[in-house]
Write a structure and sequence with these properties.
CATH topology of the largest domain: Beta-Lactamase
Number of domains: 2
Number of helices: 12
Order of helices and strands: HHHHHHEEHHHHHEEEH
Largest sheet: 5 strands, antiparallel
CATH architecture of the largest domain: 2-Layer Sandwich
Helix content: 40-55%
Strand order of the largest sheet: 2-1-5-4-3
Shape: globular
CATH class of the largest domain: Alpha Beta
Number of strands: 5
Distance between the termini: 51 Å
C-alpha cells in the first residue's frame, strides 16, 4: 500500500471512529451510522466536501501541509496522529511546541461542549484559535486576523479598534498585562521567537508600548473579571476562567456572568441576537 493509500485508509478509519457528539455535533433522529460523514469532516476542516472525499478516496492532487493541518484539527487528531498524517502524505511534520497552532483533542472536546457559552482558545501570544458562536458575538470574529494582527497584544498597540470592546477605564491596565505577557514569553522562548519579533516590531511602531516595555514588568496577571463594551447591549461584566494545556501552551478561556445579574440578562440577549443573525 502506498503512502497516499495509507493516508486515505487512516483518515477513513479516524472518521468512522468519531461520533457526532465527540466533535460537538448533534445526532439527528434518522442517523444510523456511528461515524462522522465525509461532509461533516469537511465542514469541521473548513474545506469542500468534494476535496476531502477525493483525499479519503486516494484521488486528486497531493494535499498541502495547510490542508493536512486543517484535516488533523477537524478530526481531533493527537500530535502523534497529526505527524503520521503528514508523513503519509510525503510532508515533513510541523514543529511541536507552543508556537504551533494544533489544539489538543482533550481541549477541543471541552470546547465543543460550550455551545451556549462565550469561550475561546488562545495561544500564549493571545492569538485566538477557536471561538464559540457566542464568543464571536461578544468579541467579534477574532480568528479572521492574519499575521502579526492575530495577536491581541500586537493589535492593542497598532490598531485603535482593538480597544473598542473593552471598558475605557480598564484599557491602561490591559495594556500593561499585554506588555508583561509578551516580555515573559519572549524571555521564555528566546531571541529568535515570534514573541521577540513582536516586541521588537512594537518598540518601533508604538511609543506607548516602548514606555511600558521600559518599565520592565514581567508578572502582571490579568484580572479575573473582564468588562466588555458591546456595541449593541452595552457593558457586560464577565468572569474569565482559564484552562491551560501545558504541552501546547494554549488556554481555553470561558466567560460567565453572575446568575441573576444584569450582565447575565445582556448575555442572554446577545445570544438571541446572535441566533437571529443580527
Amino acid at each position: 500500500m502506498t503512502g497516499r493509500a495509507e493516508l486515505a485508509a487512516f483518515l477513513r478509519a479516524r472518521r468512522e471512529a468519531l461520533r457526532p457528539e465527540d466533535v460537538g455535533l448533534g445526532r439527528g433522529p434518522r442517523r444510523r451510522a456511528e461515524g462522522l460523514r465525509r461532509e461533516e469532516v469537511a465542514a469541521l476542516s473548513h474545506m469542500s466536501a468534494d476535496y476531502y472525499t477525493r483525499i479519503e478516496q486516494n484521488r486528486g492532487p497531493q494535499p498541502s501541509p495547510a490542508m493536512l493541518a486543517a484535516i488533523a484539527q477537524g478530526l481531533h487528531l493527537s500530535l502523534d496522529e497529526r505527524d503520521h498524517v503528514f508523513r503519509l502524505a510525503g510532508h515533513r511534520a510541523p514543529e511541536r511546541g507552543p508556537s504551533g497552532g494544533h489544539i489538543s483533542p482533550g481541549l477541543l472536546r471541552i470546547f465543543d461542549r460550550l455551545h451556549d457559552t462565550p469561550a475561546e482558545i488562545v495561544s500564549e501570544l493571545g492569538e485566538t484559535l477557536r471561538q464559540t458562536p457566542l464568543g464571536v458575538a461578544l468579541s467579534g470574529p477574532l480568528t479572521d486576523f492574519q499575521g502579526e494582527q492575530r495577536s491581541i497584544g500586537f493589535r492593542w498597540f497598532t490598531d485603535p479598534g482593538a480597544r473598542l470592546r473593552y471598558a475605557p477605564e480598564d484599557r491602561d491596565a490591559l495594556g500593561r498585562v499585554f506588555v508583561a505577557n509578551l516580555r515573559r514569553v519572549a524571555g521564555l522562548r528566546g531571541p529568535a521567537s515570534r514573541a521577540a519579533h513582536y516586541a521588537e516590531a512594537l518598540q518601533e511602531r508604538s511609543a506607548e508600548f516602548r514606555a511600558l516595555w521600559d518599565e520592565g514588568q514581567v508578572a502582571t496577571p490579568p484580572e479575573a473579571v473582564k468588562r466588555f463594551l458591546h456595541p449593541e447591549v452595552g457593558l457586560i461584566e464577565l468572569t474569565c476562567q482559564r484552562l491551560i494545556d501545558p504541552d501546547q501552551s494554549h488556554a481555553l478561556l470561558v466567560y460567565t456572568a453572575a446568575p441573576g445579574s444584569e450582565s447575565q440578562d445582556k448575555l442572554d440577549l446577545l445570544a438571541v441576537i446572535a441566533a437571529a443573525g443580527v
